[in-house]
Structure formats: structure tokens, C-alpha cells
Amino acid sequence: MKVPFVDLKRQYLSIKDSIDLAIESVIDNTAFIGGKYVNEFEAEFAKMYGVKHCISCANGTDSLYIIMKMLGIGTGDEVITAANSWISSSETISQTGANPVFADVDYNFLTINIQDLEAKITNRTKAIIPVHLTGQVCDMDKILELGKKYSIHVIEDCAQSHFSEFKGHKAGTMGIAGSFSFYPGKNLGAYGDAGCIITNDNQLAEKCRMYARHGALIKHQHKMEGINSRLDGLQAAILLAKLPHILKWTDDRIRVAALYERYLQEIKQIKTPVVRADSKHTFHLYVIVTEDRNNLMQYLKQKNIETAIHYPTALPYMEAYQYLGYNREDFPVASDLESKILSLPIFPEITESEVQYVAQSIAEYFESTTG
Ligand SMILES: *Cc1c(COP(=O)(O)O)cnc(C)c1O
Asked: Is any atom of ligand 1 closer than 6 Å to the C-beta of 181?
């Protein structure tokens, strides 16, 4: 058996007719940039999230940058984010002119550590970017409380957490704004780059929309200089065709995670994901923690099982951030996890026998190492 890490083709084949029709209609209508598909997607996504505004943009990196820029964040400011994330969470801080500040993560949840986060707040901190990594929502009660206490914005990075929930609230609806990526491999994926911002703040919504469209809400009336960050019609139509299925696909991921949990719980050498209480983890990634990561990964590769690491180097230790001069003791958990985390194959269409094969192979590996 061969188990891919993700297989986007299976999802396409399961809804081929509606995707093909969506693509055809966009071409028929030559609605390539802006237009009805983009408007419809924004309206539909906002409705599903129960928010006033959805502003589509080119990708999930731009959405973070646009939100910060329109909140007035810039030179001299500080923004805090998690040490273990994709670089978009921190590079966009620098893009505004502000300084990225990292906080360590929790061993159990792989999300930002609240104590370290509070310790990193200074009078220059303008925002916190909690990253709901792997589909696990951060401790939003505590983060929102800190935001209020120190008057700093909370911007949720939801690139890996479409339709995740914390105490009944959807991830992305709790802070001033939520930032989404629709990169093909994400839980809701386009067939190219795409992203959006959601918010209930009317003023922020208008500014973001304007900034992403060259500073003009009305053609040729540029109130300011902006950037070009648009969602194209093809991507919008593809996303629209996927929306009716996204909640089922999310449930399927949760079911796959439960299967892994069932098959892996007996293996003492690995720690399976811990889901935060009162929350809905949507398992963009299924990350196990084990001392013997590299050998296990190699063994699974021989068994034709594709795995991945999210992420092999924590952000503060990237060459890009060498200038900040951090050492291993600064982020003990993120540093420790680098060599222990392993993401197993997960996607809505993975079969039970594939999950079984992965789990069985992991069990076999540890049986062989302990004799
Ligand atoms: C994917 C991702 C992004 C960026 O999204 P793009 O659409 O690729 O620009 C931002 N943050 C996190 C945590 C991500 O996983």
C-alpha cells in the first residue's frame, strides 16, 4: 500500500462535475478578476462565519499584512506571534516595518504559550497574532483578556483552522479580524493562491478592501496608495463549489483523527494530539510527538507512507531571524519539538484501511526497536 501525505486529486474527482462547471462558467462570463463569483464567495463565506465582512485577497500572507497595515501597525511597533508557525505569521510583521517578537508554544497544544506571551508584552506591543496551528484553537479566553488588559489588537491566523471553534465561537471571529489562506493544501483550498480577511469592524473592513485594491473602492478614485491583492474569479468559483462540502470534509478529518487516536493510543513511545477543552480541532495536520522521530519517519518512508514535519526549524532559529540572536533556551518547547514532531497523512478522503496501515506500521516500528 502507498499512502500519500495529502491527495488533492481524490477530492477533485469526488466533485468533478461541479468544479468543471464552475470553471466553465467563469470563462463563459469572462469574470476573471472581481465580478459575480468573487462577490458571491465573499457573501457566502461571511454568512457561514456569521460575520459582517469578508474581504477576499490574493493569499493568506497578504491577508495578515493588510490587516496589520490597516490597523496602523508600522515602524517602532512590536507584534507578538508563535515561535512554531509558517513564516507568513512573522514576515508580514516585518513587512509593515514593525518588529516580530516570538513567544514559545505549549507542548500539549503546539499553540502560543500564554505566560511567555504576556512576558513579551511591552509598551510598544500593538498586536498579538495567535496562530491556530494544525487546526487547534489557541486559548482565546486568555489571549482576548490580555488584548483587553494591554489594549492590543488580536489578529487570528486561521490559515490552518477553517471552521475550528473555541467555546462555540468560530476561529477568526474572536479577535479584531481573522486571516485565512485557501492555498490548495489547506482545509478549504483553491486551485492556486487565494485568501481572505473576516471582521465585524466596519471601518477596518473598508480600509482593508480599499488597500487591497490599489487604495480605490471606486475605479480611478485612489484615496491612498495600496497594493494589488485580489482573488480571481476562477479561484472564487472553485471555492464556491467546495463550500457546500466543507463542513462534511471537516467532520471527515475529525473522524480520521479519532481513528488514529484509537489505533495509536497503546503505543507508549508516541504522544497523540491533545485537543483543547471546549474546542473543535479541525485537524489540518495530525501531529504526533516522539523521541525517535527521524528513524520512524525513515521507516514509514520505506513502507511507502509519506509524512512531513511542521516545522523542522522554529521561526526564531531560521536564518532569516539570526539577527535577533536567539538561542535554544529562549524557546525551550519550540526548540525541543523541532526534532520530535511528525505529521501523519490526513485528508478527508483518506480511507480507514490507509489509516490502519499507517498506525500498524508505526506499531511495527516500535515493536522492532524494543525487541
Ligand atoms: C499557509 C499559511 C499562511 C499563509 O498562507 P498563503 O496563502 O500560503 O500565503 C499563513 N499562516 C499559516 C499558519 C499558514 O499555514
From this structure: yes
CA–CA gap between residue 318 and residue 326 (Å, rounded): 10
Residue type, 327: N
| DSSP bridge partners of 3 | 305
Write out the three cell numbers for 216. 480605490
Is ligand 1 within 6 A of the CB of residue 199?
A: no
What CATH number labels 8-102+110-244? 3.40.640.10
Residues 172 and 160 sit within 8 Å (Cβ to Cβ): no
Query: Which residues does residue 2 pair with via DSSP β-bridges, in sequence order?
Result: none
The protein residue whose alpha carbon is closest to atom 10 in ligand 1 is 88
Are the C-beta atoms of residues 3 and 354 closer than 8 Å to each other?
Answer: yes
Rg, the chain, Cα only: 21
Contact 305, 321 (CB under 8 A): no
CATH dotted code for 246-370 = 3.90.1150.10
Fold identical between 8-102+110-244 and 246-370? no
Is the sign of the CA dihedral 316, 322, 325, 327 positive or negative? positive
Ligand 1, closest atom to CA 88?
10
Task: Please give the number of the atom of ligand 1 that sits closest to the Cα of 61.
Answer: 9
Q: For residue 355, what is its C-alpha cell?
A: 489509516
- Contacts of residue 158, defined as CB under 8 A and 6 or more positions apart, other chains included, come to 132, 164, 171, 172, 178, 179, 180
**196/159 Cα distance (integer angstroms):** 10
Instruction: Please state the atom number of ligand 1 nearest to the C-alpha of residue 63.
Output: 9
The residues spanned by each domain of the chain are 8-102+110-244, 246-370
pLDDT tens, N- to C-terminus, the chain (371 residues): 999 999 999 999 999 999 999 999 999 999 999 899 999 999 999 999 999 999 999 999 999 999 999 999 999 999 999 999 999 999 999 999 999 999 999 999 999 999 999 999 999 999 999 999 999 999 999 999 999 999 999 999 999 999 999 999 999 999 999 999 999 999 999 999 999 999 999 999 999 999 999 999 999 999 999 999 999 999 999 999 999 999 999 999 999 999 999 999 999 999 999 999 999 999 999 999 999 999 999 999 999 999 999 999 999 999 999 999 999 999 999 999 999 999 999 999 999 999 999 999 999 999 998 75
